[in-house]
UniProtKB/TrEMBL annotation:
Keywords: Carbohydrate metabolism, Hydrolase, Metal-binding
Cofactor note: Binds 1 divalent metal cation per subunit.
Organism: Spiroplasma turonicum
SUPFAM superfamilies (alphabetical): Composite domain of metallo-dependent hydrolases, Metallo-dependent hydrolases
Entry similarity comment: Belongs to the metallo-dependent hydrolases superfamily. NagA family.
Positions with a binding annotation for Zn(2+): E125, H190, H211
Protein name, as recorded: N-acetylglucosamine-6-phosphate deacetylase
One of the protein's GO biological processes: N-acetylglucosamine catabolic process
Cofactor requirement: a divalent metal cation
GO molecular function list: metal ion binding; N-acetylglucosamine-6-phosphate deacetylase activity
Cited PANTHER family: N-ACETYLGLUCOSAMINE-6-PHOSPHATE DEACETYLASE
Pfam families in alphabetical order: Amidohydro_1
Boundaries of every Amidohydrolase-related domain copy: 45-377
Record gene name: nagA
Active site: D269 (proton donor/acceptor)
Length: 381
């Protein structure tokens, strides 16, 4: 397959030219025009496919739906957002429920399903978080970080847990070490930890933050906490929900200024109502209301996951930052997280011999086509 007459966003520059895909691999990247038969992209953008490392679900599905068929459905639907890979988030569940969901999810992972976006594994967001910053997680099901519990979940999932959100202040560092030894990314979040208390686990090796500013203390000169620690350390990758609701667009400017494009990854944190009509839905056992892109708890109005699509969050981020280059944008949608997940040798950027996981965007950054492993799996009408 040849994609021609396109603006191709490479890791460090942009070329106007054409790209050749053979089987599932990018075979060549060329400047200028070609007489070869191909798809004319009319000067639209080709970017590496988006990678969402924190998405609970959408289109009526979430991890807690707990069925192979629904996991497939989600993978099929999410390509319309330009996503080519994702890590499926779980909320806080009982151990019994989690073991059930994990074993169903293991079946899905064993399929190596490629008729939709590729699932890279699980982002376990609960139960190892703090009651102080539990957000929409169910208080009675929270547990202190516990290696034995995690071991059970890893086993049930078929070793498919990739990221664990946890509160470092509720353990002695051994939980963090255990995750790193087991190739799991420790992601600090949903905690009221102080700036100075972050140091110990940073030394041990955490370099990932669950949705910066959400589920942690904000910027305070008297009581610096996790948000300030995350902004302070250059080598910590921060998830950012850039839906314009969880973070004010002006705060996006501030985050970008402080962190720069190399240590931000855009996420959705979307729940099962994403892509569905406004109305009442469930997040785990909790009742929520979706209105537009916003999802909140019915009982308290607290934000509960998110309802925005990945491409919406990309556009919101792009329009918040003055003169954001496309080469810097793709760091935040694909490159940084591909590096963090240790898959950057195969995907996450447009390079010869990498897997052809691509998204075609028009001038307004609307998704025109999504290509997973060299196959066009989505085309806008
Ligand atoms: Zn989440």
């Amino acid at each position: 397959m040849i994609l021609k007459n396109a603006k191709i966003v490479l890791e460090n520059n942009i070329i106007i030219g054409w790209l050749e895909i053979e089987n599932n691999i990018i075979k060549s990247i060329n400047e200028g025009s070609t007489d070869l038969d191909g798809i004319n992209l009319n000067e639209n953008w080709i970017l590496p496919g988006f990678i969402d490392c924190h998405v609970h679900g959408g289109y009526g599905v979430d991890f807690e739906t707990g069925s192979l068929e629904s996991y497939k459905l989600f993978s099929n639907k999410v390509v319309r957002e330009g996503i080519t890979s994702y890590v499926q988030g779980s909320v806080t569940n009982s151990l019994e429920s989690n073991l059930m969901f994990m074993s169903e999810f293991k079946k899905f992972m064993n399929l190596n399903y490629k008729d939709g976006a590729k699932c890279l594994g699980i982002h376990l967001e609960g139960p190892f978080i703090s009651p102080d910053k539990k957000g929409a997680h169910e208080l009675s099901l929270l547990e202190k970080p516990n290696i034995q519990t995690l071991q059970k979940l890893i086993e049930a999932s078929g070793n498919n847990i990739k990221i664990v959100t946890y509160a470092p202040d509720l353990q002695d560092g051994s939980f963090t070490k255990y995750m790193l030894e087991n190739n799991i990314i420790p992601s600090v979040g949903h905690t009221n930890i102080s700036f100075s208390d972050c140091e110990r686990d940073y030394e041990i090796g955490f370099r990932h933050i669950t949705h910066l500013f959400n589920g942690m203390s904000g910027v305070s000169q008297y009581e610096p906490g996790l948000a300030m620690f995350s902004l302070y350390k250059d080598d910590i990758l921060c998830e950012v929900i850039s839906d314009g609701i969880h973070i004010n667009p002006d705060t996006l400017k501030f985050i970008y200024k402080v962190k720069g494009p190399n240590s931000i990854c855009i996420i959705t944190d979307a729940m099962n109502a994403k892509g569905l009509d406004d109305g009442e839905y469930k997040l785990g056992n909790l009742e929520v209301i979706k209105k537009g892109m916003k999802v909140s708890l019915k009982s308290s109005g607290v934000l509960a996951g998110a309802g925005a699509t990945y491409d919406h969050n990309v556009r919101t981020f792009y329009s918040a930052i003055d003169n954001l280059s496309m080469t810097n944008l793709i760091k935040m949608t694909s490159i940084n997280i591909a590096k963090q997940l240790n898959i950057f040798d195969k995907t996450g950027s447009i390079e010869v011999n990498k897997i052809a996981d691509l998204v075609i965007l028009d001038q307004n950054l609307n998704v025109k086509k999504t290509i997973v492993e060299g196959k066009i799996l989505y085309e806008s009408k």
